[in-house]
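tool_log.txt
---
The assistant was asked to compare two proteins side by side. It first ran the structure predictor on the initial sequence, then on the second. Raw inputs and outputs are pasted verbatim so the downstream comparison step can read them without reformatting.
(1)
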Amino acid sequence: MHYESQSLIVTTREPFGKRVPIDLCDRIFRSLSPMFAHSVRMAVEGTSSSPGAQPSWLRRAGDVRVLGFDEYGPDTLLNVEAPMLGEAAEELYSQNEFWPTKPSPDETAIHVFAKALEDVTRGNPESVLYDRHLLKRFSAFNRVFEKGVVSVGVPVAPGDEHFSARMDESSLRNARELSERTPPPQQIRITGKLDMIRHSTRSFALITDDGHEVRGVLETQDWTEEIKDFLGKRILVLGKAVFRPSGSLLRIDATGVEGGEGQSLLFAKLPRPRALRPELVRTKASDRRGVPAFFGSWPGEESDEDFESLVREIRH
């Protein structure tokens, strides 16, 4: 399997060049390594985490190796190598059906991570490149900044010499805010035509009555065999609706699938979160601490609807 050489640029308050302290290396590697694999899984399966062992293609795709450090002016180049996804996950790329977020076969896990980082930096609430679990991984990167790191620049495509995606304190704030805005998953039932099944990634696609394509993830790969007779037919999916920070549907984590003929038309609509997390209250409270930081200037400023939303959020 071919490994592609790449570099990340690390800017620190104290210039270390290629003589980086070992505890700082430890923080960087421990924080970055899982994010590469989680980002690839999100792009391929539509979920950044799943119970059980990693599939073999994901282990290969996330196998990033360290080559060493170099000086880059006052900054440090972290030199690594990673397999191209078309080779690491050859069994996936040999199949035609795929989600539109499929990375290019000549990209690596680092490029996929960088694209997710770009969306976080933009504060994109409609991104399909992260879910709440991955956003929390981004937020946890503050452990690296505690060691004097200012930013980590990452290439977003082969040949990117400008390290176009940048992990810094601003992007971490965005990750935290996006995570906090994301509505919690909720139990749902939804009907539609089963349009696609993929055994290798436990994925399926559902077409609702109004033409929306819904992405779903099955609980186990065994289910792909059990539901194949439903392909092209109407089904009922039971599970959890997972939302984007905007409140739109990201995917369905399916816990059950059965025939959908004769089911209520109420289940034919795209699920919406019961309540969006109140962004306004959080903005007003950004420079406060303790109880005032959570409730803003409450009581007195919030409407009954805002208060009810806060109560629901606390319960989740």
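(2)
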Amino acid sequence: MSGTRFALLTMWMLCMGVAVSATEDAAPQDEILLKNGSRVIGTVTGSRDGVVTIDTDFAGTLSITAEEIQSIDTAGSLVVQMSDGQIFRDRPIAMKDDLIVITEGNGDQLSYAVTDILLINPEPWELGEGYKWSGLISFGWVTESGNTNSEELDYSLESVWRSVEDRYTIRFDGEYDEANDQKSADNWTVIGKYDYFLDDPSWYIGVNASAEVDEFADLDLRYYIGPYVGHQFYEQAIFTLESELGLAYVNEDFTTAEDQDYLGANWSVRMSSNYLGGDSRLYINHIGIWNLDVTTDIILNTTFGLAFPLLGSLEAAAEVLYEYDSGAVEGIEKLDETYRLRIGYTW
């Protein structure tokens, strides 16, 4: 064999080897056909709250609402959780004309309405495997020098452990202020909660306990503990709403005023929404306690806030706090307003 023929043969074999290698390495990809005719090629990673996510080579991770989708074909295998609790593991799926087709291991195909799907690729805790841990720790610090030297430190922590059956929550908030080397605020509140979800997971029962100290409101310690019933009205990113109503034993120790304890009605409301987009979050958190022995005595704490991402897991938030106590000690304002900016870390 001449040198030229040998060189050509070698080049042909190398090219064939590269082509075969490229074919073997090319992983099958999923395809989403949009109603406007566009096609998105990539890897479907999940679906929740009516939004499908797909990882693409050209634009990273895309989120597409179900209303925009004409059809879906997956080459890889997914985990599909149905609204009735049934779970299909490691199955390719196809969706068209408001129907979804799941291919069984034996090749049989099962058809369901798209509305019957709860989640695609749910998190382990949503399949009953352990707990999901989420939380936020944040600080807000303001310092001023000149005619007035002042410092203000606000801090908060929230940690939640959630499983299919139950949920543990811890919240801690505090404030410490100084003006001209004189302390002007020193208070903190801690709340611990346990929730147990019923057969209808939108309903749950629970118990909570709280302790609060506020030196400049004459409050040495206020604590309460009691059961409640809660309901999750909505649980989607666009709008979440849950409320709780129960009874609580309340004990209040004051520095100068007369101490007291009573049976109270206790309630809370939590709302949030990503309506503004950009991963921002509007939220309202409200807690109330009503003295059932002295019905004119009521405590209302409400927070309005807007949180938005900064970098990675860092977020900033602007908040307005209203704290109202109709039974405040004489000489103490019944309504306390606080405006603050904070920076926090989420997980």
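---
observation on (2): The radius of gyration is 28 Å. The longest strand covers residues 219-236.
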